[in-house]
From TrEMBL:
One function term, GO molecular function aspect: 5-dehydro-2-deoxygluconokinase activity
Segments crossing the lipid bilayer: none
Key words, A-Z: ATP-binding, Kinase, Nucleotide-binding, Transferase
Chain ranges of the Carbohydrate kinase PfkB domain: 6-321
UniProt signal peptide: none
Annotated EC: 2.7.1.92
Protein's name in the database: 5-dehydro-2-deoxygluconokinase
Organism: Dyadobacter arcticus
Family named by the database record: Belongs to the carbohydrate kinase PfkB family.
Key word Disulfide bond present: no
InterPro entries hit by this protein: Carboh/pur_kinase_PfkB_CS, Myo_inos_IolC, Myo_inos_IolC-like_sf, PfkB_Carbo_kinase, PfkB_dom, Ribokinase-like
Highest taxon in the source lineage: Bacteria
Length: 335
């Protein structure tokens, strides 16, 4: 019997969200302070749903680090293995909210603490005590974090921990966006489950920097579809068990080798802020997975959590509880 349900690994930050919803970024008058970062969001969402969740992230010896850790502790997320890394700064993100489709953001991650996670920090984790570990792509962007994540994958595999990758593509966090795909492809075979948007799946096989905008303007729709389908098959051929493609308001699709695509419908809602929706999805999906639900229901749970979070102002601070999700899905006929 394993002691904990889920370990998330990677970035954390203070998130400064525009308090002037709808205002252009240059017209923002005030910000609200929250917390964020893909692994932190997943940890918060899964904890609020009821999982015993821990996080491995780094914080600096600064007030922002105190702010992040205070939030984690208050949520009941296990922070026993969160190091304060001297000589670094806790990460920050500044975000605008211009619904329905503009959410400009700026990262402040120069010498940030979580990218300085190292082999010793990973060695301190009792992987044998966890059922699952959720990794994010950005944690592979630079050393020492990159090497630490590969080591964490090794230890997780040796200890029969379910390994989930949220592709988490952030082009500006890589010295060359093509390096993202090369690095992630090297790690793919060590994962059981991969989750990503269509754009992130395309980025995993990016060979031309000009392709960064392919979804929007540079390639016709049939070519985009063909590229996505090829990329999906490549990911499946890497040896993973399951690929989940997040498709926004259309829901998500489940892909497994030798099986037909399974489309799982989403929940129609009015969007306020899409940031954090994918992390809420992973939290809900992980909850179902670790409660031994069948995959369709796991993805439906993820879709519900994502749908709830897009109606709210921020990410981690606004993750729904289990009771909130159940009340929400009742209005749509349940999971």
């Amino acid at each position: 019997m394993k002691k904990y349900d889920l370990l998330t690994l990677g970035r954390s930050s203070i998130d400064l969200y525009s308090a002037n919803v709808g205002s252009a970024f240059e017209e923002i008058k005030a910000f609200n302070a929250f917390v964020g970062g893909c692994p932190l969001n997943i940890a918060t969402g899964s904890r609020r749903l009821g999982l015993e969740t821990a996080i491995l992230t780094g914080i600096g010896n600064d007030q922002v680090g105190n702010f992040i850790k205070h939030f984690l502790d208050k949520e009941g997320i296990i922070t026993e293995w969160v190091p304060t890394i001297e000589g670094t700064r806790s990460s920050a993100v500044v975000l605008g909210i211009e619904p329905p489709d503009r959410f400009p953001l700026v990262y402040y991650r120069e010498n940030c603490a979580d990218i300085n996670l190292n082999i010793d920090h990973v060695s301190a984790i009792p992987f044998g005590d966890f059922k699952a570990a959720a990794f994010s792509g950005t944690a592979f962007s630079k050393d020492p974090s990159r090497t630490a994540m590969f080591f964490a994958l090794e230890l997780a595999k040796k200890n029969d921990v379910i390994r989930l990758l949220d592709i988490d593509f952030r082009a500006d966090q890589w010295f060359d966006p093509r390096a993202f795909g090369i690095t992630i492809r090297a790690a793919l075979s060590s994962f059981n489950i991969v989750v990503g948007t269509e754009e992130e799946i395309l980025a995993t096989f990016l060979i031309d920097k000009d392709q960064l905008l392919i979804k929007h303007q540079q390639i016709s729709a049939p070519e985009i579809r063909g590229n996505i389908e090829n990329a999906i098959q490549e990911i499946l051929a890497s040896g993973i068990d399951t690929l989940v493609v997040k498709r926004g308001k259309e829901g998500a699709s489940i892909f497994q080798r030798g099986k037909e695509e399974v489309k799982v419908p989403g929940f129609p809602v009015e969007v306020l802020n899409v940031l954090g929706a994918g992390d809420a999805f992973c939290a809900g999906f992980s909850y179902g997975l670790l409660n031994n639900w069948e995959l369709h229901k796991c993805v439906r749970m993820g879709n519900a959590c994502g749908a709830i979070i897009v109606t709210r102002e921020g990410c981690a601070n606004f993750m729904p509880t289990y009771d909130e999700v159940m009340a929400f899905v009742e209005g749509y006929g349940g999971l």
